[in-house]
Amino acid sequence: MDVADKHMQGHGTAIGTSFNDKGSGPLHQGPATCFYTFFVANGAPKNKGFCTFGDEDGDRLFTDWHGNGAEGVNSIVGGTGKYAGIQGSGTWKSRDVGPNGQHLTTQRFEYRLP
Fold first, then answer.
1. Residue 13: partners with Cβ closer than 8 Å, 6 or more residues away
2. Residues in CB range of 90: below 8 A, 6 or more apart
3. What does each C-alpha distance from 5 to 38, 39, 42, 45, 48 come to in angstroms?
4. pLDDT tens by residue, 38-50
5. Which residues, in sequence order, are CB contacts of 41 under 8 Å at separation 6+?
6. SS3 letters across 67-107
7. Residue range 12-33: average pLDDT?
8. What CA–CA distances, in Å, run from 35 to 4, 58, 112?
9. Average pLDDT over residues 96-109
């Protein structure tokens, strides 16, 4: 939505599947759901959102993230099951991969479990 000259804001959701680079391990082939807001002023975007990542056991990992639309930082804010008490953060980078707004996002986490 245009809210002023050269200013735009909006929101959305992203649903997908996470894949571990090793082809196995935590969160590999698990569901990923995110929602986000964005604000663009004079061509400079700011994005903010929250994600939930899951695994085949039904355990979940929750993140709070921010960035500029192409890259940013994820902070782990909690988890369930085997991820309960998890702490950590990491970077993410996203790029367009399809004609209808599809994105590929690479995320890296450094974390510790209790």
1. 33, 34, 35, 36
2. 73, 74, 107, 108, 109, 110, 111
3. 16, 13, 8, 15, 22
4. 999 999 999 999 9
5. 6, 7
6. ECCCEEEEEEEEECHHHCCCEEEEEEEEEECCCCCCEEEEE
7. 93
8. 24, 20, 25
9. 89
Model confidence, pTM? 0.90
C-beta separation of 59 from 39 below 8 A: no
Q: Is the pLDDT assigned to residue 101 strictly greater than 90? A: no
Give the burial class of 61: count Cβ atoms within 10 A of its Cβ; 0-12 exposed, 13-18 middle, 19 or more buried. buried
In the block, tokens 């639309």 appear at 69
Asked whether residue 69 carries a pLDDT value surpassing 90, the answer given is: no
State both tokens at 92. Answer: 């993410």
Write down the mean pLDDT value for the chain.
95
